[in-house]
Every structure is written in structure tokens, then in C-alpha cells.
Amino acid sequence: MAVLIDQPIWPAHNTVWAHIVSDSSLDELHAFAQRAGIPRRGFDLDHYDVPAHKWQELVALGAEPVSVREFVQRLQASGLRVPQRDRPQHEN
Fold first, then answer.
1. Distance in angstroms (rounded) separating the CA atoms of residues 61 and 39
2. What mean pLDDT is predicted for residues 35-62?
């Protein structure tokens, strides 16, 4: 059971973002996010978006840094991954 964090490489809103997921349960993920002060609005069905400036703090709190590839593989293996086709579509 681990909370994983990928690298902050995803650009949006004038910064870059990382993601955190649990490799075992959403309860674990939500509990970690709450301890870290990450607002629930950062949750996106199977992960939280986190700004780059929080990355070191999250690692210090116990998030395990992994490559993007390992991040996706372990999220898929957990059964918690929500495929793109199952995500609500946003109108632009």
C-alpha cells in the first residue's frame, strides 16, 4: 500500500503539475491528501492534481516518487484507474 507521485511535468494554469494516486484504495489516497492539505477539488476520479511547488513536501510526507510509466502501470494494476472513455466530457 503506497501513495505514488509522478514528476511535475504537466503544464496548466501557469505552472506544472504532478499527480498522486494510491496503489490500493481511494480511502488511502483521500486520507493522504487531507493530511497534506490538498483540497478535495484537486481530485479527478482516480488521482489528485498537485502543483510542482508541493512536490518535495508530498515526498517528505511519504509519497513514493515514480516514473510516469510506473505510475500508470501501478494505477492500472490497482484497479482504480478510470479510463479516458469513462471520464465526463467537458464542453469548451
1. 16
2. 95
Pseudo-torsion of CA 73, 76, 80, 84, nearest 10°? 110
52, 16 contact by CB (below 8 A): yes
Distance between CA 73 and CA 60 in Å, rounded? 23
What are phi and psi for residue 16, nearest 5 degrees?
-115, 155
Report domain extents, the chain.
Answer: 5-83
pLDDT of residue 66: 96
Write down the residue that cell numbers 498522486 correspond to: 20
In which element (H, E) is residue 71 found?
Answer: helix 68-78
pTM of the model: 0.86
Residues 33-59, mean pLDDT to the nearest whole number? 95
